[in-house]
User: Which sequence fits this backbone?
């Protein structure tokens, strides 16, 4: 394994924000559509861009409606935390000279308004947000853009995430995938290159 770059998803991988995300969607859908969902019914929103969720909900102006979600989400920012051992793991990987990156379905605005993520964000040299690629995950585009910017080939990259969207993005880009099992992941695939029960497990490879 000659990985030169380790690339991470954010939500459910680096930060534990599922409760905050689901609560915000619950409030926003009630506000905009007058429909009340239990948080257990909203798992479909996890791992995809807010605009995509709004499109699935039938919003007439998905981008405008997504701005309402972003505004509501600020009320829940204090609930977001880094997963245990993430800070140490990322700092250690950085000290080993590895290239660290992020490929996320977040927008740049959502990225910059996260206090928990701010504790480690300076360790990542290259960050690809949803607006930086022609198509979002599960398409390969975000990872293809990442590799083009960094000048690396698929066999030099390991992508680590917690969802089927992450898995398919890596597979479609011909990049090895490691599944993050330390959160409430909902990945349904078993043919992943690595399975990590803790962020510290990444250091062992």
Assistant:
């Amino acid at each position: 394994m000659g990985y030169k770059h380790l690339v991470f998803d954010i939500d459910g991988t680096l930060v534990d924000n599922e409760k905050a995300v689901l609560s915000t969607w619950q409030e926003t859908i009630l506000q905009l559509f007058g429909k009340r969902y239990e948080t257990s019914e909203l798992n479909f929103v996890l791992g995809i861009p807010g605009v995509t969720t709004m499109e699935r909900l039938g919003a007439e102006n998905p981008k405008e409606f997504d701005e309402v979600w972003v505004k509501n989400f600020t009320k829940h920012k204090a609930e977001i935390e880094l997963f245990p051992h993430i800070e140490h793991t990322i700092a250690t990987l950085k000290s080993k000279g590895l290239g660290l990156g992020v490929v996320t379905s977040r927008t740049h605005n959502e990225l910059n308004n996260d206090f928990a993520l701010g504790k480690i964000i300076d360790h990542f040299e290259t960050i690809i947000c949803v607006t930086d690629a022609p198509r979002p995950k599960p398409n390969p585009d975000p990872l293809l853009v990442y590799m083009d910017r960094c000048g690396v080939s698929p066999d030099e990259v390991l992508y680590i995430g917690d969802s089927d969207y992450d898995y398919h993005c890596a597979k479609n880009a011909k990049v090895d995938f490691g599944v993050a099992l330390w959160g409430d992941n909902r990945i349904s695939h078993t043919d992943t290159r690595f399975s990590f029960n803790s962020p510290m497990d990444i250091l062992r490879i």
Notes: The helical segments are 18-33, 50-56, 62-73, 86-95, 108-112, 115-118, 141-150, 164-172. The mean pLDDT is 92.
